[in-house]
Amino acid sequence: KKSSVCTMLEQVDEEAHEGDQSPFHGIPDSGDAKNVGLNKGTAITDPALNIKQPRDLKQLRVFSGYSSFDMEMKAKKAEWNWDKRSRAATTVMLMSIFAIMGTILRIFIAQLFGEECKNPGTVGWLKASQPLCVTAEGEATFEGGIIFADFPANILGCFIMGMMQTTDILGYPKQYPVPWLSKDHIFQSWDIWHLAIRTGFCGSLTTFSAWNSEMVIMLFGTGSSNNSSRALRALFGYSIGLETAVGSFNLGKNVASALFAWFNPDMRVEKESIKEKKARGIYINMSLPDFERRFLAELNMYEYEEYLDPTIIQSLLEWRVSTEQNRRFGDPLLPLLTDVEHETLVLKNELDGETRRAADNAGWDLRALDCWVNETNVRLIDGPKSPPETTNIFPIFFTFMMLYILLITGLIYVDANDAYSITWRTMWYASLFAPLGAIVRWQWSSYNGKLSGSFSWFPMGTYLANVVGCIVSIVMIGLEFRYAKVGDVSGFWLSGTLRAIKIGFSGCLTTVSTFVSEITVFLSGPRPFHRHIYVLITLGTTFLLSLAAYALCVMGLLDVDEES
Q1: CA angle 473-475-476, nearest 5°?
Q2: 3-class secondary-structure state, position 148
Q3: Are the CB atoms for 314 and 365 separated by under 8 Å?
Q4: How far apart are CA 68 and CA 191, in angstroms?
Q5: Which of 90, 96, 164, 394 has the smallest number of Cβ neighbours within 10 A?
Q6: Are 399 and 97 in contact (CB under 8 A)?
Q7: pLDDT score at 307
Q8: H helices present in 17-134, as ranges
Q9: What is d(CA 410, CA 556) in angstroms, rounded to the nearest whole number?
């Protein structure tokens, strides 16, 4: 027995088509054309469905999942349980905390793989014979210089960034932000923490500016006995830095995908089923809610079947049968079908007149679709809700303030001039500049994809952050080299400030993890050659501009050294 909503929709449909032989334009009632144009009142049955008998309507629970698009819309509309200003402040403070953590870890790793060779004892417990000697601090005197000081940190940061890719990027049908956890884990809803880890921690742990600056220094050969250029090593340094970062990022993605399949076997089975369907040319709309996505593609329904009453599933089944022949790649009506289902099933909007006429002409059972949408809206009891409040601003604020107090205290309290003290003071000092660089990069990311024309795909925000950060970094290195040559270095504060801006601000403004993430997206997209264009433009621009800036700072000093 059909519900009042479906009955009312049928009455409206009959009135609209009164006097016609069929509710569709030019489609006979026999249903000979593409299995559509079904007679009214004729029930469609599918023996593959194992549907239980109707239950009491009071116990009826209709599942209507939400897609990633719904989550983005809710986030933009700020449908949360707390004030938008508190959310913004918490985001900034949490990102600052993770940026400081990423910067400290990056500096510490750089000490293990570089500075200890130049100044033994700067790390304290590490013996000078253990570390790998690499390029550092404006000099190219160390062997193996193509392995730059922040090379290990970039590899680690890219691996973590790969681990933090959303599940839809890993090929799963639904988007979950943390792939190495169960899909029902509470941490999946902590979106501010996800942003802080990706943008704050990974973006600050990896640095594009130090990588680029050290390759420019090698090209100049500053610090060597004869100021000879090491251009070939610099070229290999760019190649090794890029390829190892991409490889580490992909390794992180593979590990995350394996963990998600382990924790969520149903999603793994659905992923394999989707691959099989696509191999047969069947298109699956990933933006649809869970139930509709699985049902329309005839996938395994898992736990959602028991939540549906047969009188309701009848409508969606009629819609599936009427559109079945158009759910294939290359079908001219597939874009229209995708738009219709996204508008009605995802956005819950009414179709405009032109779209309805086009769908009607295609022979699709819009009455069944309208019936399904209205039934799920009317009878929805336990539907999706916005993620609960999981982040309190007060502990974050307390942690943020305590961290800054500790950094400032350490910077002022440790005032000795030995190498060990200077190393740790520089670390604290640089960490104070880290949040500014990370937040500026985060804000500039809004410019990604904002170019018009043929370069609308270009991530302008990331590119701008890397270019500006590289210029600032190489200028700080050049100034430090100049002051050291002329003997105009008075105490810690001059050189310490230059290094803090270079390591803290520029190191966090630039990023390798996001750069590599964008490269892999282009590679798997419809135009993979965008990857090569993006890499060439970024590496070429940062290298040439940094080369010119560094030349202005040190060229005169190199001439003086050669004459002497």
Answers
A1: 65
A2: coil
A3: no
A4: 13
A5: 394
A6: yes
A7: 58
A8: 68-76, 84-110, 116-118
A9: 38
Q: At what angle do helices 491-500 and 419-444 cross, to 10 degrees?
A: 30
Tens-digit pLDDT profile for residues 372-384: 888 765 554 344 4
Res. 90: pLDDT tops 80: yes
Structure tokens at 57: 């309507």
At what angle are helices 231-263 and 265-279 packed, to 10 degrees? Answer: 110
Backbone phi, then psi, for 491, in 5-degree steps? 75, -165
Q: How many CB atoms lie within 10 A of CB 415?
A: 10
- Residue 272, both tokens: 């394999």
Distance, in Å, from the CA atom of 169 to the CA atom of 185, rounded to the nearest integer, reads 19
Tokens 């995802």 label which residue? 346
**pLDDT tens-digit map of 437-472:** 999 999 999 999 888 888 889 999 999 999 999 999
Backbone angles phi, psi at 136, to 5 degrees: -160, 145
Half-sphere exposure of 93 (CA within 13 A, CB side): 20
Q: How many CB atoms lie within 10 A of CB 195?
A: 16
Amino acid at 387: P
Tokens, residue 188 = 């999946």
Torsion of CA 375, 380, 386, 387, to 10 degrees: -130
| Secondary structure (3-state) at 158 | helix
CA count, 13 A, side-chain hemisphere, 63? 18
CB-based burial, 299-324: b 16+ in 10 Å, e otherwise: bebeebbebbbebbbbbbbbbbbbbe
Q: Which two tokens stand for residue 358?
A: 């086009």
Q: What is the value of pTM for the model shown?
A: 0.73
Closest CA to 222 of 289, 291, 141: 141
Angstrom distance (rounded) from CA 199 to CA 206? 10
User: Which residue from 112, 104, 261 is spatially nearest to 181, judged by alpha carbons?
Assistant: 261
Report the b/e string of 148-168 with b at 16+ CB within 10 A. bbbbbbbbbbbbbbbbbbbbb
* Least-confidence region, from 222-231, 433-442, 462-471, 498-507: 222-231
Please compute, for residue 157, the number of CA atoms within 13 A of its CA located in the half-sphere on the CB side. 38
Which helix or strand (DSSP H or E) is residue 258 part of?
Answer: helix 231-263
The helix or strand, by DSSP H or E, that contains position 406, with its residue range, turns out to be: helix 393-413
Per-residue CA distances from 433 to 366, 430, 502 (Å): 58, 5, 9
Other beta carbons within 10 angstroms of residue 64's beta carbon come to 20
DSSP labels for 269-329? HHHHHHHHHHHTTB---TTS-HHHHHHHTT---GGGGGG--HHHHHHHHHHHHHHGGG-BT
> Structure tokens of 187?
């941490």
- Interatomic CA distance for residues 345 and 285, integer angstroms: 11
Burial 254-284 (b: 16+ CB within 10 A, else e): eebbebbbebbeebbebbebbeebeeeeebb
Supply 266's token pair. 């149903």
Give the percent of the chain with pLDDT over 70. Answer: 69
* CA–CA distance, 274 with 272 (Å, rounded to integer): 5
